[in-house]
Amino acid sequence: MELVYQKQIQVTEEHIDQNNHVNNVQYVHWVEEIAAEHWDLLKQKTEYVNDAWMLLDHHIQYKKQAYLNDIITIKTYPKPPEGAKQPRKVEFYCNDQRLVDSNTLWVLFDPQTKKIKRLEGDWLEKLI
Fold it and tell me: Global pTM?
C-alpha cells in the first residue's frame, strides 16, 4: 500500500479572505481534513482501527498564494514515528509550485479510555 495520499480541491469563494487569496486558516483546516481522510483509508489494515489521532504540534510555512478557482493538489504522508508521536507531512501545490508546507505531530489515543497509545516502531512498514 502506498503511504502517500493526495487529492485536489478547487478554490471557491468560501476559501478566500479579504486579501483575495486563500485564507491561511483554511490551510490548517485542510491539513486536518486530509490527515483524517488518509487515516480512514489506512486504519482497517492496522490493529488501531478503533483509535483516533489527536494533533499535538503544527508547523506551517506559507510560500505562495492561491486564488479563486485555482486547483490545489494536497499531498500527505506519515513520516517514521518518534516514540508515541507520529509526524505527518502535508504539502500544497498549484501549477506544480509548492504553496504551503506543513509538518505536524500527532498521537494515537483510545477514545474509550482517553489514553495515548505507543505505536510499534515499524507499524508503517506493515502497511507498505
Answer: 0.91
